[in-house]
Amino acid sequence: MKPPIDILKAARSFRYAGVGIYNLFRFENNARIHLLACLLVIIAGVFFKITSSEWAIIIIQVALVWSAEAFNTAIEKLADLVSPDYHPVIKVVKDTAAAGVLMLAISAVLVGGIVFLPKLAALTGW
What sections of the sequence does the record tag as coiled-coil (predicted)? Predict the structure, then answer.
């Protein structure tokens, strides 16, 4: 009888995902920019002592941006493999995937503003 969960298969899947995360931050400049922004947000969150709810919202935003960056990178790599030469449709695909990351990054900045600007204003007396 086959067990309900194949632990070894699951462990391999986690390892492959870990390699993907490593490669994302090792080779993709924009992912490193997002990582730096994340570190700054964590520092700000600790400094301003944001609430559990605010942490949850910030963590969701960070995860969404990183996930979008991973999907964008995967789409770009696949597009480059399928069509190494310039193709107008591939350009649209890549630009659209990048637009998805940009939209989420803008959303994350807006959420960061909602969370941190009132705290910064209170600190500086604005």
Answer: none
Q: Residue 97: phi, psi to the nearest 5?
A: -65, -40
User: Could you tell me which of 99, 76, 91, 95 has the C-alpha nearest to residue 23?
Assistant: 76
pTM (two decimals): 0.88
**CA angle (17, 80, 88) in 5-degree steps:** 135
Question: What are the residues whose beta carbons fall under 8 Å from the beta carbon of 54, sequence distance 6 or more?
Answer: 45, 115
CATH number of 66's domain = 1.10.287.3610
The answer as to whether 1 is a domain residue is: no
pLDDT band for position 3 (50/70/90)?
Answer: confident
Q: Is residue 50 part of a domain?
A: yes
Rounded Cα gap, residues 40 and 14, in angstroms: 27
Q: If you search the block for the tokens 């940009």, which residue do you land on?
A: 102
Report the number of distinct structural domains present in the chain: 1
